[in-house]
Amino acid sequence: MSTADNPLDDPNADPFEIARAAAADIARLTGVERHDIALTLGSGWGKAADLVGETVATVPATEVSGFSKPALEGHVGTLRSILSPSGKRILVIGARTHYYEGHGVRRVVHSVRTAAATGASVMVLTNGAGGVNPSYTPGRPVLISDHINLTADSPLEGATFVDLTDLYSRRLREVARTIDPTLHEGVYCQFRGPHYETPAEVRMAGIIGGDIVGMSTALEAIAARQAGMEILGLSLITNLAAGIQDTPLSHEEVLEAGRAAEPVISDLLARVVEAL
Ligand code: 8IG
Description:
By secondary structure, the chain is α/β, with parallel strands linked by helices.
């Protein structure tokens, strides 16, 4: 499907109906009727899928209703159905649409709504992020405890009032800490991107209570909560945020930190998912 004929771009279409159609596509293409847990893999987390269990089927995201092609190297455009050792059905989403791509929030949260429509009750959102808190150095995984949404946008339409208390489930964070007691928590600030922040914006993020900065996840978490899912958020710190380190940020640096940390955090994520 070309991006030009994405059904989500029709303002009269119902995004939840398209998510149900996508879930039906996934069931048909994977042969797996329902999933228990969904996992979105961000920068640095890609290898985790191989450790979570046995891949039953891999589907190009472009064959599933409403999905668009990934914009970035390091973001694989596939959906995978995995069977974990304990028998859980895991849907791995390697096809994130970012807000900065400019296709609107419906496309950004479509994978989350689709995951909910496949039956998943837990949404694990992972990303690569910059560290504002100086102790959050590259290579460290950090549990997301809460977020500050600086996009000034919402995936909810109309007068849809959704409670975001305990958005990043305390219960799931505690499960993650049973696997790695050294995991720290932080508040994730979603900026629009795709530019990185200025040092002044990073200082602001710290002052208003942010520990890490990124360009995804917050809008997805809101949609996941609306869909009734329990959410676990994990960031891999791939760089110190602008001005916290004195050298400029580069996408290469981010990719390299992701590659270096990948084996460790992938193993962590696989063990956390099995414990959920
Ligand atoms: I990876 O420093 C990664 N993603 N906004 N700032 C923002 N997003 C990021 C950063 C960062 N690093």
